[in-house]
Task: inverse folding
């Protein structure tokens, strides 16, 4: 077992979850985050380094003696930070800039999917609002208009209001217009070294801000795993029809994908379709998925980063279910209120099946924990089933004193009550 000194890049709930899982791997002897957050500070050493600044990341990795860098968010990947780390001779879990275009450009992702025969929504690339108008009229409502580039989950509008679709398009050019996909959504993460890919447990994310899927899209308001309503063979089908052909197509192009391939899918009445690819762990699904992982995360990510994933067997999972509920600052996904005090138990340590993961938090001048971003906390509970995990997560939320934060109250509710019909594969 190689002792691992790991540097995690990023500062969100996903990075806190990654750091927590890494801290529980006996192979991980030292853990650093850049920049991290007040939550990661309890289990790792935080460094005030910008994760998008390749030379600064390399200098930090050298200074702390990191032999594995794990890149959390998409921005450093799209900016080529993984390339810079690898060029410095340090193993890096995260794709090259060339492979990260799978997330960085919706149109590039469509090209790859068409070439690889991966099922996805029909789409039209548009550079003017007139082209968008023609495309949405061709597909009919509900209209789906997406900014081509990175938009932190907020570049997409799904609406039956034609004027709203066109107004969104005006601020989102160049844009991709897509056919509407019905059916439940699934997030499936695969760890890959560019040849061998290992699936994680599938999860479901809640993208809309309000209960009952009301309101605008967000980065994600909650998630749960696994999916009690999933059709038999779901993971195998996604690997065979989506992940493996996509990984093979990127290798064929000379830009192999090493890291985490996130397939966002709709299980439509006509079969599964890719909604989006991301080039990194999802946030907040990761917080729930890693709560279920029984395999040592550092060993697995190191094997992927070093091209040795074939030596790692299938991942092991705990029995039961996990739920994460996001607490966001009032105003999110618009301009969030900042500076609201947060108090309560478990905020800086977790001793039981519930963890409070930090995202947009900070310490104020008096050392008090305050809201400092849109998504502020993720409360994760792991229990024997979804109903128990939900109950534990919401009980922990109800113990918090955080008047400027809100959450959805229906995360995993339909699934826990058996109200999601099993879709066809
Ligand atoms: P994306 O950034 O592409 O993942 O889109 C964000 C969210 O918008 C998705 O998770 C879906 O909820 C929704 N969405 C995106 N594309 C479609 C589509 N073609 N049909 C229906 N909903 C979609
Ligand atoms: N939860 C959606 C994302 O990470 O993009």
Result:
């Amino acid at each position: 077992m190689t002792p691992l000194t790991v540097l995690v890049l990023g500062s969100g709930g996903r990075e806190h979850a990654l750091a927590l899982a890494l801290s529980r791997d006996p192979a991980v002897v030292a853990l650093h985050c850049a920049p991290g957050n007040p939550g990661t500070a309890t289990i790792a050493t935080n460094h005030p380094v910008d994760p998008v600044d390749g030379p600064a990341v390399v200098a930090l990795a050298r200074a702390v003696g990191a032999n594995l860098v794990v890149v959390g968010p998409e921005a450093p990947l799209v900016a080529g930070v993984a390339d810079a780390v690898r060029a410095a001779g340090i193993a890096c879990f995260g794709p090259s800039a060339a492979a990260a275009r799978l997330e960085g450009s919706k149109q590039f992702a469509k090209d790859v999917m068409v070439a690889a025969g991966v099922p996805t929504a029909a789409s039209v690339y548009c550079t003017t609002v007139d082209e968008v108008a023609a495309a949405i009229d061709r597909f009919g409502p509900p209209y789906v208009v997406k900014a081509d580039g990175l938009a932190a989950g907020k570049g997409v509008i799904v609406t039956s209001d034609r004027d709203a679709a066109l107004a969104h398009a005006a601020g989102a050019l160049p844009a991709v217009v897509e056919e509407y996909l019905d059916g439940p959504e699934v997030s499936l993460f695969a760890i890959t070294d560019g040849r061998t890919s290992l699936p994680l447990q599938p999860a479901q994310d809640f993208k809309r801000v309000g209960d009952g899927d009301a309101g605008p899209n967000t980065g994600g308001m909650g998630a749960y795993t696994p999916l009690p309503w999933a059709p038999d063979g779901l993971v195998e089908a996604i690997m065979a029809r989506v992940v493996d052909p996509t990984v093979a197509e990127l290798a064929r192009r000379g830009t192999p994908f090493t890291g985490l391939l996130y397939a966002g899918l709709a299980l439509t009445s006509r079969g599964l379709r890719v909604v989006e690819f991301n080039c990194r762990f999802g946030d907040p699904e990761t917080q729930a998925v890693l709560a279920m992982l029984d395999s040592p995360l550092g060993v697995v990510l190191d094997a992927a980063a070093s091209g040795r994933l074939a030596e790692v067997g299938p991942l092991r999972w705990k029995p039961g279910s996990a739920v994460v509920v996001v607490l966001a600052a009032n105003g999110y996904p618009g301009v969030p209120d900042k500076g609201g005090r947060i108090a309560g138990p478990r905020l800086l340590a977790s001793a039981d099946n519930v963890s409070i993961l930090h995202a947009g938090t900070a310490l104020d001048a008096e050392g008090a924990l305050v809201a400092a971003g849109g998504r502020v906390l993720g409360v994760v509970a792991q229990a024997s089933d979804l109903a128990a995990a939900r109950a534990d997560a919401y009980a922990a939320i109800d113990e918090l004193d955080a008047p400027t934060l809100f959450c959805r109250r229906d995360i995993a509710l339909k699934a826990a009550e058996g109200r999601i019909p099993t879709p066809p594969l």
